[in-house]
Amino acid sequence: MKPSPRVTPDNQPFFDGCNRGELLIQHCTDQKCNRFVYYPRVACPHCDSRLEWVRPSGRGRIVSFTSVHRPHHESFYAEAPYYFIAVQLEEGPIMYSRLRHEGPLAEEGLIGREVRAVFVQHTPEQRLPFFEL
After folding, report:
1. Phi and psi dihedrals of 117, rounded to 5?
2. Are 44 and 30 in contact (CB under 8 A)?
3. What are residue 28's DSSP bridge partners?
4. What is the pLDDT of residues 72-103, one digit of tens each?
5. Is residue 7 part of a domain?
6. How confident is the model at residue 49 (pLDDT cuts 50, 70, 90)?
7. Cα separation of 57 and 62, whole Å?
8. pLDDT interval class at 105 (50, 70, 90)
9. Would residue 5 count as lying in a domain?
10. I want to staple 127 with a disulfide (CB 3.0 to 4.6 A). Which of 62, 96, 110, 119 is the partner?
11. What is the DSSP letter of 14?
């Protein structure tokens, strides 16, 4: 059985959105700050203002990655090798996730590639955002 994310009142909207196939991140309500925020928090880390949940474009670029050949949890062994990626969303924040792809991939061309969010069934109760080229 795969480990499940720890869902709390602060991140519940994010995980509920994933189950609906919607990527949700937070946005600062202060007009001077006006930044997008990921991972979920109780207040803006830049100005301490209130945050609201918004639906970003779901698009971004790969800024870093690693190829996972030996996962730390046995429930992921059958899926290896896979790519764990850092994606800078068009709105600014960086999200860490997995790259969904079929077949071999040329690693030297991954940095800077455009990706979009897709939702994958992680456990029977929870879908998670992955990204695809």
Report:
1. -75, 140
2. yes
3. 51
4. 999 999 999 999 999 999 999 999 999 999 87
5. no
6. very high
7. 15
8. confident
9. no
10. 119
11. H
Tell me which residue range forms the domain holding 113. Answer: 12-132
Q: Is residue 6 part of a domain?
A: no
| C-alpha to C-alpha distance for 24 and 21, rounded to whole angstroms | 10
User: How far separated are the first and last CA of the chain, in Å rounded?
Assistant: 28
Strand 114-123 versus strand 126-132 pairing type: antiparallel
Can you name the residues that pair with 66 across neighbouring β-strands?
84
Band the pLDDT of 114: cuts 50, 70, 90: very high
Provide CB contacts within 8 A for 36, sequence distance 6+.
25, 26, 27, 28, 54, 56, 89, 91, 92, 93
- Report how many domains make up the chain: 1
